[in-house]
Amino acid sequence: MKFLTTAALVLGAGLASSAHGATYEAQVVRTQFGIPHITAKNYRGIGYGQGYTFAQDNLCLLADKVVTVNGERSKHFGPDATTVIAFTDIKNLESDFFFKANTDIEALRAGRAKGSADYRDLVDGYVAGFNRFLADTPKDKLPADCGDKAWLRPITVDDMLRLNEERMIQASGGAWLRQTNAAAPPTAAAALKPAASLGLPNMAEMIGLGSNGWAFGRDVTTNKSGLVLGNPHFPWEGTNRFYQTHLTIPGKFDVMGVTIAGGPGMSIGFNKDVAWTHTVSTDRHFTLFELALDPADPTAYLVDGKRHAMDRKSVTVETPAGPQTRTFYTTSYGPVVVMPQAGLTWNTKTAYALRDANRGNSNSSDTWLRISRAKSVGEIKQVIEQTLGIPWVNTIAADRHGDALYADITATPNVSAQKLKDCAPSAPAAALAASARIYVLDGARSACDWDAPGLMPGATMPAMVRTDYVANRNDSYWLANAKAPMPAFSPLVGPAAIPQNLRTRSGIIEIDRRLAGEDGLAGNTFDIEKVKTMLFWNRNLAADLFLDDALKVCGTSPTATTAAGTTVDIKAACAVLAKWDRRMDNESVGAHVFVEFWRLAQKIPNLYVTPFDPADPVHTPRGLKTDGETAAKLLQAMASAVEVLETQKTPLDAPYGSIHFAIRGDQKIAVHGGEGGDGVLNAQQSRWNAQAAGYVPYHGSSYIQVVSFDDKGPVADAVLSHSQSSDPASPHFADQTWLYSKKGWHRLPFSKADIAKDGPGPVLVLKGN
């Protein structure tokens, strides 16, 4: 991709056709790391600039996703290749059938019509801006990955509606893609897919999706203003990665931060008065309904004794080998689904349907637009209560007045604990609630449908505004402030008084240490620099809690046997772990040995000396049992970890950054941070890459912002770990990845004066009809 080098450039298209000037007009200035600052007179203009600049940086990324949500991947890429849906790899053919069968474009258009004119203008401008870049750029100047491909085309408003729908259902209907596609009546010629090929739906906590969100109020901040850490753990790849931008309508709208790739507006960020972030919530945004079928027809079901025929939809997907067709079945609750391994099958007596709280969630976009304009956390709380447009994330925010907000107010079924009890299904279905928090209601009784108005009222959901702190790290609302635990809400919102993930415990410990002045930093209040240091300490809480006990077991034998019966020398591994600094820094030696060991060890039953105590959730469970059967299993885990590393030819004493890195072209960029399940706040999930001989991050700390306020406006330090552009030819393909590797930060320029100082590029003026 080639970028402008002139002092200013005006691009106009079709201006002569309009007697009143351009329909779309924007001014764009890029500062360090390619961040576009887009100024316009109205929402059409900032959308125009945002669509254009995103296309400059990530044209192929969005074009590829447009193919996905239109159900055309098999046609262009073959049916057996995979794509990522709801954070999980899915075959193209399955993806295509799902989107063609389950996207109601007419309903999405109707939802758009009910939304604000401002957001419609923003989307219209985004579409026009993206298409403008595509029209203006010669094919030989387009990115190599898609420039000459048939699937690269101008986008439409319908494409944007489909893209938004895909994002809304990622923690609900999208997670049930395989289970929806596999549903077929017992009389159908095609048999159900084997249980092993379906698995459990890919709920957020099952795939490691998460984030850290901290907000501090005036009682604990050095400057008596609000302070926010936003640390979403999100993909480094695909259209769930973040994109930095700054959008301004002078005197009306001024917000900076990130948007989910290809999304108009702002997802996480700040304005002059508030800063906000999100973490994935524990809410269930769906329920299943157990259907009693008509004995004479398995495609009809009974509600209050009245027969209802299922709707049938024949769907055809184009593939290089010719079209393939399937029939899908839908009820008044939603599509029929199956999960054979859990006993949820479609037989002659029973079937199951999925009702999705986020299907057709057209309120979401206006919700974020209104958050971007908020002047206080009270206003943010009011917005999300009124709209219920937040799909599947907690909201954490602080304002310049020093108030801090935590809110788990999302689109959640209005189902109480009592209704779950009164409307219990058959035993196999009921067991899912205990094993996987999948709630099933009796669909044969209309009284068992969700209570009016369908979604849980926002004012009844967990929320608090405080002047000390609130925080979330993907456990439930329960310990948003550890000094003031919340009472239990409906099970659909999330559990209370249960063991917390190690990252939750780590965050509370770090905050408590800071408040007590026990962390080695000056004073006992929070400011931007201290929060940055806390996050990038990269402490491994699992090691702090359990490594000493593991080393005691290590000392009992120089060798150990793996589960497969192989005898392995573990002496060197134990020696490396004994010297490890228990951090996930690039220079740390032994970090990867512990990661492989703890991956196995944490699964050992009855592992802990002190079990979980709800009265002490931060410090329990603790201590490893070191004798008898547990000690033998710990040795086995150590042997298996060493065997893995030997198979990979990974030296036990390798510095962490030498074998844990991002790949950018022919560059290997060391990446600090580690598994969130180990209690590492700066979480990174990685895959072993045999060709590169290292662990390559694909999901984790992505956009990180620490924001406070002074009398001039917001003060924000940030880094986008995966960098701004997905185009290898871009100068912004790896620049922030290098910055992140060095634990660097960028002071974001918000005011005109700061933008002028931050190495601004040429002014690009866009005009078009």
What would you say about this model in short?
By secondary structure, this protein is α+β, with helices and mostly antiparallel strands. It has 21 helices and 35 strands.
Question: What does the model show?
Answer:
There is one protein chain. This protein is of the alpha+beta class. Helix 1 packs across helix 5, helix 4 crosses helix 6 and helix 15 crosses helix 16. The chain is globular. It starts with 7 loop residues before the first strand and ends with a strand.
List low-confidence stretches. 1-7, 14-19, 189-196
Principal-axis shape equals globular
Radius of gyration: 26 Å
Report the β-strand fraction as a percent range: 15-25%
The first-to-last residue Cα distance is 25 Å
Discrete helix count? 21
* Helix content range: 25-40%
